[in-house]
Amino acid sequence: MRYWLLKSEPDVFAYSDLERAGTEPWNGVRNYQARNLLREMAVGDLCLFYHSNAAPPGLAGVARVTGAAVPDDLQFDPASPYYDPRSDPAAPRWSMVQVAPVAALPRLVSLTELRGLPAWQDSPLTRKGSRLSVFEVTPEQFAGALAAAELDLPDARPAD
DNA sequence: GCCAACGTTGGC
DNA sequence: GCCAACGTTGGC
């Protein structure tokens, strides 16, 4: 199993919105590096749900990948802000995965706090200037974030 | 292929 | 609201 981090602006779509929705297509990603990572995700992978552009920014919850990458339908919708007229329907440019909530963190783990965790010293999140909205996190980073929030997630641990 | 201009991201 | 950093666009 692999671990990932997904950024979302809570004013637009917060972790609580994911809980309300039950399942959600992770669409609208329009960055090639992030898209390539979406395509690497497998059903069952776990994601840290990060609130960006928030006060304070930080990790709010854990989500699970429930559907592997498929073409992002919004790229073909002229009414969508994510419409991409240059995407060829025969070879769609943009992908999305499906995610579902697993657990809200008992408390938000702020970016400031993450910067203080040893496992998080090297990450796109703590690297200055990085704007990547989807990236892989190490098992140590994942476990460290959950420990900081005092969330025990039995099914997040690798099977013995 | 270069690179300046532009729009966006996201912390503060 | 500010602004640094980044990715993309488009002229040449």
Automatic annotation (TrEMBL):
Protein's recorded name: EVE domain-containing protein
A Pfam family (short name) is EVE
**Listed transmembrane segments:** none
Family matches, as PANTHER family? THYMOCYTE NUCLEAR PROTEIN 1
Q: Domain EVE spans what residues?
A: 2-143
The source organism is Deinococcus lacus
Note the SUPFAM superfamilies from the entry. PUA domain-like
